Amino acid sequence: MDSGQIASVHDARVLVVGAGGIGCELLKTLVLSGFARIDVVDLDTIDTSNLSRQFFFRREHVGRSKAEVACAAVMRLNPKAEIAAHHGNIKAQEYGPKFFSQFALVFNALDNLDARRYVNRICVSLKIPFIESATEGYLGQLTAIFPGDTECFECNPREPPKTFAVCTIRTNPSEPIHCIHWAKMLFARIYGIQEDANAVTNLDTILSAVDEKSDLSTVAGSVFDQVFNKDIEVLAKMDKLWANRRAPVPLCYADAERDHATASVNADAARPTSGDAALPDQQLWNVATCAQKFVSSIAELFTLARSQAQGKGKAVLTWDKDCAPALDFVTAAANLRAHIFGIPMQSRFNVKAQAGNIIPALATTNAIIAGMAVMEGIKVLTNQRDRCRTAFLRGAAAAADRRLLVPCHLSPPSASCFVCGHRCMTLRIDTARATLGALVEGGLKKALSFTEPQVVKGGTILYECGEGLEDDEVAYFAKRTALKLTDVGITDTVLLSIFDEAANFTLDIRVSHAEFADNDDGARFEVVDAAREVAAAQEDRRRRAENDEQHRRAVERDEADADAVVLVEAKPATSGKRKHEEISGGADAIVL
Question: What is the pTM of this model?
Fold first, then answer.
């Protein structure tokens, strides 16, 4: 780079969203590459599972903010750099459009789809270029996104998280993940809003009696007896259900408590040796420990809910993998249910990975993708947009043409994208039976990732939420969520404008009345865009043809190209020296 380009990189203020596996590598590489004005935002705190792949974190940092620890570490690489850590949720109001407008470039290093969509929408609305990156095991990819000129993150629909049949989860689990999902549903049943989606058991009698004077240990014991003893007794009597497998065995709290002696013996036998002894999350809890953790976490969570409610009724808790009592609850509940059904129990570490949808990460993959992301960032800041690429890191097994890094030209925006293409979406829902709350929570927040949706019909605000509302306004809109869509004027063919102030994003939605089978509460819906599906299919065919052509050219390319990087697997030499041809290419050379 010439002096002008170096100055552009040095003076640019950039934002790194996420200080995890990729984020830490990004911070290190940015500082070592001459970036001197960096802000980083991350909500998470450090736990023991991070220590194997995020090298700025040490055991003494467990429990502290990832952003703060990572920033303190990279400051040692360049004490003159201006690096600011923000321990918070990127979707919080304080990190809205005004915050983002300070930056010339954004690096996205997030691990969940919802937050990625938020950053994408806010950058598109403000025309801020950003680098999107992700890894999964040995695989990785990144791309530079120029809002309005190249496709955005949502131009290509992402596959939704895998779902499981509710009947399997409730009555006939066969895998650990079924028990983990059941435990999360039970959490929502106790601490969330009771609805059909989390109706794993009937706890109405127990929960309705809970008040400020209740003995929480007694409440927890009652819940334990209901879900692990009484409910299981009913299931065990369904003979046809267990014709080809062992029937579940009911478990009462007293029996689990009597497992204490066995528990201590099993714990000693299962305890890891030497260096692993300090990693309790990777140890398997026995039945007694699970029972104790289940009861204690229920009490802790009720106490947490009370503190959040501050005397204003029941507080609703949302399950969070980084909330210790919430993770203890799901781990204990899932393992107790697994024990009852004869399914292998899981460590707290594994439960967190599966319940929190954590993608496995490798330090080397993160380092490669982060390094390439910084290179793309330098191109953006030095006006070399034409050289920016989308790049894919492939596993060795997939690299049939022996190229592990595959670059592709940036694609133009998709005409069918409802974010950067400003299309109108169609929402099919039973307008006669669904409530305004079902539309907001299920359709807008869950399916379309709106953070603070404002629903407007014509010039009338039908629903609004967010930190700027007065208490009476909050109460008014909360009351309206119970109304049927027809009661608030939402009928077939009505056009709604949805504005998300947090992301500075607007979307038009046309409502289409539809009646679905198995839709008792009317909350089922479908987001439809026929034009998008057609355009997506055409675009997919075009890209496949283009990628096939790139692949053909790559195979034909001379492996001795001066720009190629070759990794060589050394072979045992038959004599004291190896022949020249054994180290200059050949069958074992891998071209990057």
Answer: 0.62
The DSSP annotation for 416-455 comes to T-TTTS-PPEEEEE-TTT-BHHHIIIIIIIIIS--SSEEE
Max CA distance (Å), the chain:
88
Which among 24, 71, 123, 167 is annotated as catalytic? 167
CA-to-CA distance for 592 and 584, rounded, in angstroms? 15
**Structure token pair of residue 141:** 């990819």
Structure tokens at 404: 């592990």
Give me the sign of the Cα torsion angle 78, 80, 86, 91. Answer: negative
Top-confidence residue, 573 or 317: 317
4-8, 88-92, 261-265: least confidently modelled range: 261-265
Cα–Cα distance measured from residue 106 to residue 124, given in angstroms and rounded to the nearest whole number = 11
Q: What gap in Å lies between CA 477 and CA 481, rounded to an integer?
A: 7
Query: Tokens 């894919």 identify what position?
Result: 392
Do the Cβ atoms of 551 and 536 come closer than 8 Å? no
Residue 439 burial (CB count, 10 A): 28
Is-catalytic flag, 71?
no
> In terms of Cα–Cα distance, which of 84, 126, 91, 133 is closest to 108?
133
Helices 287-309 and 216-225: crossing angle in degrees, nearest 10, is: 130
Q: Which of 420-424, 514-518, 526-530, 564-568 has the lowest mean pLDDT?
A: 564-568
Query: pLDDT for 251-307, tens place per residue?
Result: 988 888 776 444 443 443 343 433 444 467 888 999 999 999 999 999 899 888 888
